[in-house]
Amino acid sequence: MIFRMQIPAGSTHTVDFGLQDSNGLFLDLAGYTSRMQMRRDAAQPTPDFSFTNDRLSFIPASQQCRFVAATSSPLTIHADNHEFSAGERVQFSTTGTLPGLTPGTTYYVIAQGLTPYACQISETEGGAPIYSGVAMSGVHTVSTVNAGVVRLTIPASVTATMSGEYLYDLEIESGGGEVTRVLEGLCSISAEITR
C-alpha cells in the first residue's frame, strides 16, 4: 500500500496504521516486531532514519461509540467509519455503565446490522445478537481484541532534524523471521510557516 505522509518539522508526529487480513479482520500481531526506514534515495544502502519498537508499537484498534438499546431489537453499537468485520472480536470499556455487557469481556461482531457506521454483537462467533433494553451511561469505547494497529510516534526532537522528502517503508517481522512490507510511500517534512 502506498501512503503519503506530511510532517511539520519540530513536531511530535503520531500516526496509526490498521492491518487487516483478506477477510477484513484486524491481524493478531502478538509476537511480531516492526521497523520503519526512511531514505532520501531508494538506492541508498543505509537509511537516514530507522525506527524500531522504541518508536513503533502494536495497539488494538479502538474508538468511541454509543449504544442504541431497545427491548424489541438487538443492541446496536454506533461507531462512525469503524473498520470492524463480521467475526471480529471486540471488547468495551466505559466511564459509566453498560447493562447487559461486561467491560473487558470478548464479544463478536455479527453480519446482521453491520454497516460502516454501526454493528451488532453476539456472545459467540456467528451467534444471536445481544438484546439490552436498558439505557447506558458514560463514554464508551469499543476496541479490537487483536493488536492489529501499528502506531508510529516520531518525537519533536527527531522531526526537528529532518527536512525535505524521504521514501519510507514499514515492515513487520514474525517471531519466525518472516518479514512483510505493509506500507511504503513518501514522507514530506516541512518547516513551520507561521510562528
Report on the architecture of this protein.
By secondary structure, the chain is an all-beta fold. It has 2 domains: 77 residues, Immunoglobulin-like; 83 residues, Elongation Factor Tu (Ef-tu), domain 3 (Beta Barrel), CATH 2.40.30. Helix content is 2%, strand content 45%. The chain contains 1 helix and 14 strands, in the order ββββββββββββαββ. Strands 6-7-10-9-8-11 form a 6-stranded antiparallel beta barrel. Strands 1-14-13-3-4 form a 5-stranded mixed beta sheet, with no helix packed on it. Strands 2-12-5 form a 3-stranded antiparallel beta sheet. A hairpin with a 2-residue loop joins strand 6 and strand 7. It starts with a strand and ends in a 5-residue tail after the last strand.
Shape: elongated
CATH class of the largest domain: Mainly Beta
The SS-based structural class is mainly beta
Return the CATH architecture of the largest domain: Beta Barrel
- Unreliable residue stretches: none
Overall helicity: under 10%
- Average pLDDT, all residues: 87
Tell me about the largest β-sheet. Answer: 6 strands, antiparallel, barrel
How many individual domains?
2
Q: Tell me the β content.
A: 35-45%
CATH fold description of the largest domain: Elongation Factor Tu (Ef-tu), domain 3
Order of helices and strands: EEEEEEEEEEEEHEE
Q: CA-to-CA gap between the ends?
A: 35 Å
Spatial strand sequence of the major β-sheet: 6-7-10-9-8-11
* Computed CA radius of gyration, to the nearest angstrom: 20 Å
Number of strands: 14
User: Count the helices. How many?
Assistant: 1
